[in-house]
Write a structure and sequence with these properties.
about 160 residues, alpha/beta, Rossmann fold, five-stranded parallel beta sheet, 5 strands, about 45% helix, binds nicotinamide-adenine-dinucleotide
């Protein structure tokens, strides 16, 4: 998986493009690194306007710099006000929201009997509460625009055993 992400990031300028994302407005969480960054770069290459959101502002600024456009926002996906404000700011700037990618995630991998309750709650908070808050904020806009612009929400997650 990491090899594929790194290959995508290093071959950004040579990735095959398609017109499917042209003119779409896409909000990607956790876009400062890894899979989220790869999604943001690929969407941009395919003609979308991307809002790159991450708890680490420097990392999303770098993503936006590499994409040569779009918006970098510091957003903690577990903070309802921050999520709502970021989605509202995106809609204010671009007029609509076509795709919400709930990608921000923490992986604190450990056997259950060794995992602290504190770390369990951190993972649940970012991966699940974050996805809920981003979905809720996005749906409030997506239902307003649904007759004009059908929209999608995409969830990225992991399963470990
Ligand atoms: N790496 C893998 O092998 C793999 C495989 C399948 C699925 N996934 C899933 O893909 C998603 C991204 O994984 P990745 O490997 O790219 O991880 P990553 O650590 O490279 O990226 C995660 C990003 O989320 C950001 N983030 C963390 N907490 C946040 C918060 N509260 N608010 C906003 N942003 C926050 C981080 O700053 C980081 O930029 C995760 O949900 C992960 O579970 C990863």
């Amino acid at each position: 998986m990491f090899k594929r992400i790194n290959k995508l990031l290093s071959n950004f300028s040579t990735i095959q493009t398609s017109s499917i994302m042209k003119n779409k407005v896409c909000f990607v969480t956790g876009a400062g690194s890894g899979i989220g960054k790869a999604i943001a770069l690929k969407y941009t290459l395919n003609g979308a306007t991307v809002i790159s959101a991450d708890i680490n502002l420097d990392s999303v600024k770098q993503t936006v710099k590499e994409m040569n456009g779009g918006l970098a926002l510091k957003v903690d996906v577990t903070n309802e006000n921050q999520v709502n404000e970021a989605v509202a700011e995106s809609v204010k700037q671009y007029g609509r929201l076509d795709v919400m990618v709930c990608n921000a995630g923490l992986q604190l991998i450990s056997p259950v009997h060794e995992l602290s309750y504190e770390n369990w709650k951190k993972v649940i908070s970012v991966n699940l509460d974050g996805a809920f808050l981003c979905s809720k904020a996005a749906l409030n806009q997506m239902y307003i625009q649904e007759n004009k612009f059908p929209a999608s929400i995409i969830y990225i997650g992991s399963v470990h055993r």
